[in-house]
Design goal:
Elements (H helix, E strand, L loop, with lengths): L1 H14 L1 E3 L5 E3 L6 E4 H9 L7 E5 L24 H8 L24 H6 L5 E6 L6 H10 L3 E5 L2 E3 L18 E3 L2 H15 L7 H21 L3 E8 L7 E5 L6 H8 L26 E4 H4 L22 E4 L1 H9 L1 H7 L3 H4 L3 E3 L9 H17 L17 H4 L31 H4 L2 H38 L3 H19 L1
Parallel strand pairs: 3-4, 3-5, 5-6, 9-12, 12-13
Antiparallel strand pairs: 1-2, 7-8, 9-10, 10-11
């Protein structure tokens, strides 16, 4: 038995190999002990990583503008960490500032690490870096050198060549033929694959996600039928005064969360309508944002006199805004003042919500909870502008998600076509037999197994007994010839006695 295991050992080592998104091959021979960011830790714990595998974390667990810091519910709901997640993180060391995990402290306490704390860590065998933006985290690289532990990198932005990665000089990303934006589920699946390689018993919540997606798609189909259009924007004012309000518009490829919404059916308007030079001040689309001053967004309003009476006609016919966090907080801090300076019909109607442009936690559980919230908002939304035609677009094709060749132009949105949607979200995993049975059914199966075992034992014992009985008869019962001879001898004896 031992020699058989040794024969297969090389195959097991080869099979237990993981290729990360920087092309590095990793092999595990023991249970890992992990150092990673706080949000990556939550993602892995959601997927079933044992808590004792986590040695320490770095960085902020919160979305950068999370209301959770104020002790209230996060505006990003389950796409942000939850209080129970935070409690688990606090049970482990952080190599960042001691108060980084305190929800009442400012976020700048979470920048950087304490190198002395990193050097003092014991037993770290794996550093996990789930990176967006620049494609790497210097904290992970420096910790790897200090602890002599490998870094496994998962790219949360692109699936493609390394030149797709953004740089500090061009954080929006390089446009390239082989750059394909990953969706939220793409990133979850990569983390899931890594988790299985690590040996995690993945208690993931894919069943929750598939059911939430099915409900979401029903609502998205209703939005298409009603002509309701959504848009991803940041509306901000540097001095928060009239004439300084601007809208920054992005396309669904810019963020994994947004791409997910489009590939399961949400009608999202694309940027590109503004042709003024100022609208291209952050660069060319699609990699850049379209920057639209308020006076260009409300063309019927005189410059410096933007009012609700003239703001009915807008550059984009948006019925529901998906707002970036900073602008959303400005709006929530002073709703009346904000809407007075930017009186868009969707804002006035209350048809907006904060959207997690920068996803932090990647798990089936987080996404399913978010879809539940968004589904409710979609179901209650109304069309505010005249309808506009949709455009045919294969939203999951490489042509669509390529960061250079665009199918949709300014003000366009993809038609509803389930054939082009990503069906993986709505596909429920097969249920395990024991999980699918009721308690009574499980008891019945158990009793049946006991009965079958007893029956088999009875048959075996009977066979043995019969076999032993046959042997006893063979050696202890007289044969027929012996019986006949014994009978004749007895008769002869009686005759002699009679004589």
């Amino acid at each position: 038995m031992k020699s058989g295991f040794l024969f297969f050992a090389p195959l097991l080592v080869t099979a237990n190999q993981f290729l990360d998104d920087r092309g590095r091959a990793h092999v595990l021979r023991d249970e890992p002990r992990v150092l990673c960011s706080a949000t990556t830790a939550v993602s892995l714990l959601h997927l079933g990583m044992p808590l004792d595998w986590l040695v320490a974390t770095w960085g902020s667990p919160f979305n950068r503008v999370s209301n959770l810091r104020n002790g209230t519910e996060s505006e990003f709901f389950t796409m942000d960490i939850q209080l129970d997640d935070l409690a688990v993180l606090k049970s482990k060391p952080s190599v960042t500032h001691p108060d980084c995990l305190d929800e009442s402290k400012p976020e700048d306490l979470c920048s950087g690490v304490d190198e002395a704390k990193v050097d003092a860590l014991q037993g770290v065998t794996l550093i996990i870096d789930v990176s967006g933006n620049h494609g790497y985290d210097p904290i992970a690289i420096n910790a790897s050198a200090a602890l002599n532990a490998p870094v496994v990198t998962i790219d949360s932005s692109f699936d493609g060549a390394l030149n797709c990665l953004s740089t500090p000089e061009n954080y929006l990303g390089t446009i390239d033929q082989n750059c394909y934006r990953r969706s939220y589920l793409d990133v979850v699946n990569r983390i899931y694959d890594m988790a299985e390689w690590m040996g995690i018993d993945t208690r993931h919540d894919r069943d929750l996600l598939c059911k939430a997606t099915q409900r979401f798609q029903q609502a998205a189909k209703q939005a298409h039928d009603k002509g309701i259009r959504f848009m991803l924007v940041a509306i901000q004012g540097g001095e928060f005064e009239e004439g300084n309000m601007r809208m920054y518009v992005t396309n669904p490829l810019q963020f994994s969360t947004a791409r997910t919404m489009e590939e399961i059916g949400l009608p999202i308007l694309w940027p590109g309508l503004c042709k003024e030079d100022i609208c291209k001040s952050m660069g060319e689309l699609p990699a850049a944002y379209e920057v639209i001053p308020a006076y260009l967004y409300f063309p019927k309003c005189p410059v410096g006199k933007i009012e609700a009476s003239c703001a009915r006609d807008t550059l984009y016919k948006v019925d529901f805004f998906l707002l970036e966090g900073y602008g959303y907080q400005q709006l929530e801090d002073d709703p009346e003042g904000f809407k007075k300076l930017f009186p868009d019909p969707a804002l006035l109607a209350g048809q907006y919500m904060a959207f997690p442009f920068d996803a932090h936690v990647y798990s089936h559980r987080s996404l399913s909870g978010w879809l539940e919230v968004l589904t409710e908002r979609i179901e209650n939304a109304k069309r505010l502008h005249d309808p506009s035609p949709c455009s045919e677009a294969h939203v999951t094709s490489l042509q669509h998600i390529n960061y250079k060749d665009l199918e949709l132009g300014g003000g366009e949105y993809a038609c509803w076509n389930p054939q082009y949607h990503n069906s993986e979200y709505a596909t429920c995993p097969p249920e395990e037999v024991t999980e699918g049975l009721s308690n009574g059914a499980v008891a019945g199966v158990a009793l049946g197994a006991i009965f079958l075992g007893a029956l088999l034992m009875f048959l075996v014992m009977r066979f043995v007994l019969n076999y032993r009985t046959g042997i006893d008869k063979k050696f202890h019962e007289p044969v027929e010839e012996e019986k006949e001879l014994e009978s004749n001898t007895s008769q002869a004896s009686h005759v002699n006695d009679a004589a």
